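Saturday, quiet lab. Running sequence design on the structure tokens for the scaffold JK sent over.
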């Protein structure tokens, strides 16, 4: 498994201490995928209500706070497939 995925699972797990009632898959290009749901955060590639896709650099920037997720989406660096409402709920939990 990718060290980027391992680190992302660790960072997201810390941020998701309050839980999440949807299902989101975050695909990090050329690295793998992360699942976020009511069970927590884990490496995986399953069906989800919403799939977010970004490069490793964009994802790491979002996690560090250096990249605004909305700006990344508007500029095409972050792609969304599925339910926008679920993505917005995730954004609120992570902020």
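Result came back. Writing it out in full:
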């Amino acid at each position: 498994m990718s060290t980027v995925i391992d680190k992302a699972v660790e960072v997201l797990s810390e941020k998701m201490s309050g839980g999440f009632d949807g299902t989101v898959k975050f695909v990090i290009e050329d690295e793998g995928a992360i699942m976020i749901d009511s069970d927590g955060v884990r490496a995986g590639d399953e069906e989800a209500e919403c799939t977010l896709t970004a490069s490793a650099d964009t994802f790491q920037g979002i996690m560090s706070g250096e990249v605004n997720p909305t700006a990344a989406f508007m500029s095409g660096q972050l792609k969304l497939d599925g339910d926008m409402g679920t993505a917005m709920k995730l954004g609120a939990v992570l902020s």
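Notes for JK: Residues 3-15 form the longest helix (13 residues). Strands lie at 24-28, 32-37, 40-43, 50-54, 78-82. Ask whether to fix the surface positions before the next round.
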